[in-house]
Amino acid sequence: MPRLSVYFVRASLVYLILGFTFGGFLLVNKGITLSPMIWSFLPIHIEFTFIGWMVQLAIGIAFWILPRFSNNTPRGNENWTWGTFILLNVGIICIVLQSLFNVQPLSFIGRVLEAFAFAAFVIGNWRRVKPIGA
Ligand code: HEM
CA of 75: how far to CAs of 8, 82, 88, in Å? Predict the structure, then answer.
């Protein structure tokens, strides 16, 4: 597994733990109201489980298993996908900070960073999506 996929998968596992923890707080709070504030964790739970865990895991594994080139850069220009890793995780952090501290533009900035992260992944890996022998 390439080093970058290791980072993606490890980060996704951290978000899995965080996402389920926040989900647990939400679930408990529905049965026994600990604090009304806990409901504001919902966007954080969604961001951690969906983008942080599931999307990030899919990207990390895709980078590993998509067809490789038979030259000395088998995964093309990896800088694009390094950009994906950095932009995606900074984006997630921005969105979570917005939910926690209500700093207004952070959520928008986070979504823009995430959009750039996905675009960078597509640009960096588009040519790897090809049939056998092509
Ligand atoms: C694959 C993992 C998960 C994903 C993608 C996910 C995603 C979501 C989403 C999108 C919502 C909002 C639903 C809505 O607004 O109608 C939600 C709500 C919630 N999630 Fe999760 N979740 C996951 C796992 C979990 C786990 C493991 C727990 C508990 C430990 C949990 C507890 C909750 C609770 C309590 C709510 C609020 C439900 C309500 O509206 O009353 N989730 N989750």
Answer: 15, 12, 20
